[in-house]
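Newbie here. two chains, one complex. Structure please?
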Amino acid sequence: MSEQGITVRIPTILRPLTGGQKHVEGSGSTLRELLADLDSRHDGLSDRVVDDGTLRRFVNVYVNDEDVRFTGGLDTAVADGDEVTILPAVAGGAGGR
Amino acid sequence: MRVDSVLDTVGNTPLVRLGRLVPGDRVRVWAKLEDRNPTGSVKDRAATWMVRAAEGDGRLRPGATLLEPTSGNTGISLAMAARRGGYHLVVVVPENVSVERVRLLRLYGADVRFSPAAGGSNEAVRVARELSAQHPEWVMLDQYSNEANARAHYESTGPEILADLPEITHFVAGLGTTGTLMGAGRFLREKVPDVQVVAAEPRYGELVYGLRNLGEGFVPELYDETVLDRRFSVGPRDAVRRTRQLLDVEGIWAGVSSGAILHAALGLATQAEKAGERADIAFIVCDGGWKYLSTGAFDGDLDAAEDALDGQLWA
């Protein structure tokens, strides 16, 4: 792993897979490659995010705060220095429901 | 303007250019001031449309009890409509919403029930759906699935924006029930072929996401991702920074959720400027700053505000 890799924010529910770490580093040129790289060190992580080659319905993944479902999904390009966030879908949202 | 009922004062809100924050004529950003609605939020539109639809189809009769999961604004809007229409209102509110929201709900006559803070609005929805099963005679309008919520924006917010800004290139709003984006977004897509519809979604502290199993998340029934072009996640620091900037530079005092939406709008403005493209970006100011006074969003530096908002449902 390069010194300045890709930083991935891990949600509480997945931290058992990362030894409790809130952030992990990874590498790859696409989100798919990044998840495979993470999975090699944090066994089972990819399976919790991806099902049958697509993102799971109730998981949102953001690269530099943009939802990857609108930027190519698992084929979204990533590069060293990027920040990736994995979050469960909640009934949240702006506007004060 | 002279009208028969406070409900007739919903909508027709001003669209204000942010000419100091974004100077120059090629890229312009416009704020749709939804705090000018009768209870002070964009939710007056969804609430009045949902109530009228339920009255129209006979589900809602005088003396009936309404039930709704809400983090505040929709409940306050429904409470106003309930007072005017002669209904009772039970709201299920996450216990980590601001005290102003709870006070306002009670002032307007709502019966406030709390859901656990951990899990945020997901828990409020779950508790409300349980209450609904126990009280089948209560009417749960359910803003997350009620088509009249999105239709309110298809029939009012969208047309108002188009009338004021026919040259619109981007529409930016918050993503909660998704009603604003789905309704106004669909309307604008039909009228303005190349318009971009962009969502800004608040990113809360960890407590709100809880220990939610990734197989059991929540996506509102109204949500149709084909209406959107892009979707951004905005954390509390950026949301507060933009809320303060809007106040300091433009003299507009908005709530923190609006700061999150402004953050996305300014990101689009910067991208258009870099690309040398023309842009007219309209975004929603959901409510004013009043209900956020106790949250800490306006106190101390950004670090202090960010810490204060952690664990709260700030949008």
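Moderator note: The two ends of chain A are 43 Å apart (CA to CA). The first strand of chain A starts at residue 6 and ends at 9. Thread marked as resolved.
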